[in-house]
Amino acid sequence: MNTSAVLDLCLQALLAAAKLSAPVLVTSLVVGLAISLFQSMTQLQEATLSFVPKAVAVAIALVVCGHWMISEMVSFTNDLFARIPSLINSK
């Protein structure tokens, strides 16, 4: 296994991780921004007001995007398993 193969695998793994985490992170970011704007406008500083809506929104995002996330991960894993013989033989 040469250096370019290792770098290619690392790049693919990082891109897959970024794609899989994007729906949850973007949802949390948008809801957190909306809640913080609401809190600053109403001057209502309650800790549960910022946590509960984010938790609910992230759960909804996981339900909506869960099938896509699993299929992307299965596809990535199948590609890795298919590349094992070529990675072992390349020196």
Automatic annotation (TrEMBL):
Source domain of life: Bacteria
InterPro entries: Bac_export_3, FliQ
Transmembrane portions of the chain: 20-39, 51-70
Topology class, membrane: Multi-pass membrane protein
UniProt keyword Methyltransferase present: no
Compartments where located: Cell membrane; Bacterial flagellum basal body
Keywords carried by this UniProt record: Bacterial flagellum, Cell membrane, Cell projection, Cilium, Flagellum, Membrane, Transmembrane, Transmembrane helix
Main location as per UniProt: membrane
Similarity comment: Belongs to the FliQ/MopD/SpaQ family.
Function recorded in the entry: Role in flagellar biosynthesis.
Xref: NCBIfam families: fliQ
Protein name stated in the entry: Flagellar biosynthetic protein FliQ
Taxonomy of the source species: Bacteria, Bacillati, Actinomycetota, Actinomycetes, Micrococcales
Gene name for this UniProt entry: fliQ
